[in-house]
Amino acid sequence: MNAIVLVGGQSQRFGRDKLAQKIGGLRLIEHVLVRLAEISPRILLVGSNMGLDLPPLKQSRAQWIDDIYPGKGTLGGLYTGLLASDTEHNIAVGGDMPFLNTELLSYMLSLAPGFQAVVPRLGGYLEPLHAVYSKGCLEAIKGALEQNRLKIADLIPTLRVRYVEEEEVNLYDPEHLSLLNINTRADLERARLLVGGKARPEAEAMP
């Protein structure tokens, strides 16, 4: 199953291009790509690349896709990614999530058949940017975009959803690090502390 990485507007709160910030020797976007490449044959990055070049070793799997609905936020990016994908079910994550857990994502993918979305729900809160969506969502998303209803959290209850509850997430990621995104400089410093100043070995060894 393909992966969709939503990168539009990723630096508005951070103040500069956060995807290029280094964490343990790798750029933030590289952490995301390395994790996703373990389980996805094709990775679609939706949004402007802001001059951010991908390393040659990633280019065979990752490609930039221009947003069909610029200015429509993550919902527009999700629609663009689903439309461009050639698989029925797709992982969708933010481009600022350096600690994606491939076992958790694989578990979520295993739940996808029969549902339009698979979404974690922790403490009553949804995690729509760490989810699995099917192409069966396209019509509902397009309708929401045309009515300027842009919150993914408002769309999800209208879909056929398999919620992944906290106790399920805990089996694979008890610290919930996979759901950590980098919105502020404080978030970035926390991520650097978690990495401990080293790139992950599998990132260095990836062909």
How would you describe this structure to a colleague?
The protein has one domain (about 1-205): Spore Coat Polysaccharide Biosynthesis Protein SpsA, Chain A. The chain has helices at about 30-35, 55-60, 75-85, 100-110, 140-145, 150-155, 165-170, 185-195, 200-205, and strands spanning about 1-5, 20-25, 25, 45, 60-65, 90-95, 115-120, 125, 130-135, 160-165. It is globular. About 40% of the residues are buried. The strands form two sheets. Strands 1, 4, 5, 6, 7, 8, 9 and 10 form an eight-stranded mixed β-sheet that branches. α3 (about 75-85) runs antiparallel to α5 (about 140-145). It has nine helices and ten strands. It is of the alpha/beta class and about 210 residues long. Mean pLDDT is about 85; it is low at about 195-205. α2 links the parallel β4 (about 45) and β5.
Defining traits:
single chain; 207 residues; alpha/beta; Spore Coat Polysaccharide Biosynthesis Protein SpsA, Chain A; eight-stranded mixed beta sheet; two-stranded antiparallel sheet; 9 helices; disordered C terminus
